[in-house]
Amino acid sequence: MDSALVRLLAVAVLAVLPALCFVGLFRLIDRIAHDELVARVERGEFETESSPNRPASTTLDPANAVAAAREREMVTCPSCSAENREGVDYCRQCLSELQ
After folding, report:
1. More confident site: 35 or 16
2. 3-state secondary structure labels for all residues of 54-95
3. pLDDT of residue 56
4. Pairing status of strand 74-76 against strand 83-85
C-alpha cells in the first residue's frame, strides 16, 4: 500500500512540477515585458537624451558605422573572386587562404 502511495505521489509531482515551472516562467517573462523601462524605450524617451558625462560627439550612429565598415579596404579572393575584408587570412566563401 505504501509503495502505491509513493508511486502515485511521485507521478503527481512529476506531472505538476513542470507545469508550475512553466507558469512561473511565463509570469516572469510577462512581468519583464511590461516593465516601465521597456515602455520608456518603446516610447523613444532615450533616443534624444545625452549623458552629461559624455560629449555628444562620442555617441555612435549605426548608419555611420555601417558606412565606415563598407568603405574599408577589400581584398578579392584569387580562387572564387569573393570580396573579403583586408586582414583576414581565409576567404569567407570558399575558405581558401588569402595572400
Report:
1. 16
2. CCHHHCCCHHHHHHHHHCCCEEECCCCCCEEECCCCECCCCC
3. 55
4. antiparallel
Residues in the chain: 99
Contact by Cβ (8 Å): 46, 63: no
The dihedral formed by the CA atoms of 20, 26, 29 and 34, expressed in degrees to the nearest 10: -120
Determine the residue type at 82.
A
Is the pTM value of this prediction over 0.90?
Answer: no
Count of H-run helices and E-run strands, the chain: 3, 2
Instruction: Work out the percent of the chain whose per-residue pLDDT is above 70.
Output: 86
- Alpha-carbon gap, residue 93 to 78, rounded angstroms: 12
| CA angle, 84 then 89 then 93, to 5° | 45
Residue 80: how many CB atoms within 10 A of its CB? 13
Measured between alpha carbons, how far is residue 86 from residues 69, 73, 97 in Å?
11, 6, 13
Q: What does the block give as the cell for 2? A: 505504501
